[in-house]
Amino acid sequence: MNETLPIRPDYEGELRKAGVRITRPRKVILSILADAGDHPDALEIFKRAVEIDSGISLSTVYRTMKLLEGVGAIHRHAFEGGPSRFEPAGVEHHDHLIDLDTGDVIEFHSQRIEELQQEIARELGYDIVHHRLELYGRKRRAKASRGG
Amino acid sequence: MNETLPIRPDYEGELRKAGVRITRPRKVILSILADAGDHPDALEIFKRAVEIDSGISLSTVYRTMKLLEGVGAIHRHAFEGGPSRFEPAGVEHHDHLIDLDTGDVIEFHSQRIEELQQEIARELGYDIVHHRLELYGRKRRAKASRGG
DNA sequence: TATTTAGTTGCAAACGATTTGCAATTGCAT
DNA sequence: ATGCAATTGCAAATCGTTTGCAACTAAATA
Ligand SMILES: [Mn+2]
Ligand SMILES: [Mn+2]
Ligand SMILES: [Zn+2]
Ligand SMILES: [Zn+2]
Fold first, then answer.
1. Does one domain contain both A16 and A80?
2. Does A122 sit within 8 Å of B97, measured CB to CB?
3. Which of A97, B34, B53, B131 could bridge B8 with an S-S bond, Cβ 3.0-4.6 Å?
4. Cβ separation B126–A139 shorter than 8 A
5. Does residue A82 share a domain with residue A129?
6. Which domain holds residue A36?
7. For the residues of chain B, what is the DSSP string, one character each?
């Protein structure tokens, strides 16, 4: 296992540099994203935002997510079934394992898989722009058990 | 235009065994799926169905896709952006590479990746129920070229 | 600081994909 | 052939998301 440095991405600077105005709603949303440990969807971000500034609208959340995605500040995930979920783009690349029972999202990374993907694409004559690897599963139950 | 609807016999039997009524719309949809070489979405299946039987409705296509998915006869893919796309479940498992320029869907399979996924899930204490691996890329351009 | 103005907002209405209620129809067991 | 539950087509509803628009505001300018 390796440590992940809990770097708080300097969103505002990044955005200013991209010519984006730093408004009140955006500050709120950015702060929520900056210290979100999970992968919230737009509605969840909206709810958290309202706690800080009750004037924020859901439209603005959607617009802001699209904007942040556009400048590469966040990643959008479309996990099976549900709405888009987001996470800051600052962290190292990783893929996800979704717990079908609880909805928990577990992150993992396999350099070997990444390499194999490149290899496959190359053989097919392609360059990978991005990819999506999601494992859907359930907690392994102890093999000999009597509990429900 | 066409004579008999060449429904894959095992396909229909599979459904009967699952207690599903074989109706005219279902026969049409099944035949379309059986010899679809691509990964059509509901609307595309609907269009193809209408050519055979103009009375079929889009609702029925959606309902049938859900039913077929439920009994495991087809797989649903939710590629980036677009609507759900489908393919018969009979073929060997494979994953997909989507050409970002043309929309082409290329199938591939890596036993090594499949194994690594299992390994990762196991380490995290999970059993994989299913997974999704999609590569999005563009055709590799020859390094020294003058063509468009 | 006051002025200016293009970017941004909240709201409501529109949107595309998919689902659903319902009355009419149909598969299929009898 | 009969009877009835399963299935259908249609329209309306739903869900997540986007958009038009008039009011507002960040931030460049004077
Ligand atoms: Mn993540
Ligand atoms: Mn396929
Ligand atoms: Zn990856
Ligand atoms: Zn696979």
1. yes
2. no
3. B34
4. yes
5. no
6. 9-91
7. ---S----HHHHHHHHHTT----HHHHHHHHHHHT--S--BHHHHHHHHHHH-TT--HHHHHHHHHHHHHTTSEEEE--SSS--EEEES-SPP-EEEEETTT--EEEE--HHHHHHHHHHHHHTTEEEEEEEEEEEEEEPPPSS----
Which nucleotides in chain D have some atom under 7 angstroms from a protein Cβ? 6-12, 15-20, 25-27
* Ordered mean pLDDT values, 10 residues apiece, chain A (148 residues): 42 76 94 92 97 96 96 94 93 95 95 98 97 97 56
B81-90 residue pLDDT tens: 999 999 999 8
Claim to verify: residue B76 and residue B106 sit in the same structural domain: no
Span B98-110, mean pLDDT?
95
Residue range B118-148, pLDDT digits in tens: 999 999 999 999 999 999 999 998 765 544 3
Chain A hits for B132, CB-CB cut-off 8 Å, are: 80, 132-134, 136
Task: Chain A: give the shortest CA distance to residue B59, in Å.
Answer: 19
The total number of structural domains in chain A stands at 2
Q: What pLDDT, on the 0 to 100 scale, is given for residue A19?
A: 76
Q: How far apart are the CA of A114 and the centre of ligand 3, in A?
A: 6
Which CATH number is A120's domain given?
3.30.1490.190
Residues 87-146, chain A, touching B (beta carbon < 8 A): 97, 99-100, 106, 108, 110, 112-113, 116-117, 120-122, 124-140
